[in-house]
Structure prediction request, 596 residues.
Amino acid sequence: MLSKRGLLIILKDNMNPETKICQNCKKDFTIEPDDFSFYEKIRVPAPTWCPECRSIRRMVHRNERNLYRRTCDVTGKKIISIYRDDCPYTICDKDYYFSNDFDPFKYGVTYNSNAKFFEQFYEFAKKVPLASLFVRNSENCEYNQDMGGASNCYLCSRTHNSKNMLYTYRGNHSSDCTDCFQAIENSEFLYESVNVSACSNSQFIHFCEKCSDSSFLYNCVGCVDCFMCTDMRNKQCYYKNEQYSRTDYKKIIDSYQLSTQEGQQKALKEFEDLLKKFPRRNLTITRSNNVTGDMIFDSKDSHDVFSVKGLQNCAYIWDSSRFSDSMDTYSGMSTELTYEATATTGHSSNCHFCVRVYDGSRDCEYSWFLQNCSNCFGCVGLKDTEYCIFNIKYSKEDYDNLLSKIKSKMREDKEYGEFFPLYISPFPYNDTVAHEYFPQNEQYAKERGMKWGNFEEKNYKVTMPANSLPNDIKDVPDSITGEVISCEHNGDCEHGCTKAFKIIPDELSFYRRRNLPLPKQCPNCRHYRRLAYRNSTQLRDVKCMCEGNNLSNGIYQNTVTHEHGDSSCGKNIKTTIDKDSDYVIYCEECYKKEVY
Prediction:
């Protein structure tokens, strides 16, 4: 039996980088000295799976966007849920779950020292009702997931303190945005935009800040009335990175006829071509020090982190903000000492191997959906309590004694230190965010003990083909909201295509107000189209493509003289940009020379 002291001795003897073989994919991976220090600090063994496999194992517990109609297993009410009807877990209406009628303690079970922990947890967790949706303190948000403080939203996910949002993923403190993706913050009246902050009245803008009244922008800051531009700072009336008079600028915009399908698609194609003619920064790391990864903001002393903000002393964290002294998490904010978890929020602390613990929870392990709890192990759905195991409350002394026995048995069974096995996830692999980052097929999922969800045929009848939609928004009648429109992909894609969709009244009003044509694809296919703008989470080695005073990659001519003059830069750098892309990749120094 391995004691805590024995565990610390093993870790202290390994304060050098160590290469291990992943017990899942069998590939080599490295554990860094700082990683060992963290494992010692929180008293857990070093991981046996590589970072990528660990990420997948966590992500299979996150269905962020797929909704289903089903029956509440407790009340018999018809509900909307992220869990399919054939889910082996007990699913209840969210209103019941968050009410005083729900008593999670009545499902408590006594720990069996003769059985493995994960097997016990699986059987126990299947009996405790899970909320159909995680939507709190929101109004008119029945068809959404993971929301708080929101109102009048439809088919959105991870959207908080926002209103009048449609088909948007990760919107915060924003309003009146449609079809937007990833960190839409403090913005309003946006369409088809990705990673923007403090922007308004714009469409098709990506990685922009403080821009307004603009269209088709990439990496622009402080721009107003700009169209088809990239890497601009504090400009006005610019078209394809050149300035025009306001009169000429307006004529150019009018010539595109952006209220029509044809005009919008023409502009989108030109925009994509334009982006390949300008250098792309190898990584986006802003106001940060001593970090590795990509899309990193206001962080320090962290490695292998992606799409993060406000991190300190962290590693292997994705899509999160304001974490400190944490490793291996996906989704969450404002926590510390977190390890192998997903959706830890609300100033939680020292929680490991957990799914959605929040509102100040602390010192919890191997638990799901805990609100303001402390010292809980193997629990599900508890609120405002402490010293519980499998939803049974103990005295502090009894809790400590039993917990010591459980951990000893888990170490013997090689369970302690591992996140929940893949088979415990309530979701089919293709319903989870893991499938968005790491697309796989049914065979892959089932060979690893995971579920796979088949497409559910709906009983509606298509009343209008996508190619019959009016070309111009001005010609769209009010009756369009009664039509069932076929998606132009018709299921012939890997995007979870629903084959048909509807235009809801609020959506039609938005398109009319913004003078935008109707979409021809279902919301799922549109979401996956935006996913393509997100780089991978794999860092690869490249050389800076800047050729000084010569054409870079035969495409781009520098606008200022660089320190290396006529010769190429050739600096060894890392990037997450796909190796098959046509982008001209510059190092940070060469890129800043051109943009600033």
Summary: Residues 1-12 have pLDDT under 50 and may be disordered. The two ends are 60 Å apart (CA to CA). The longest strand covers residues 312-336.
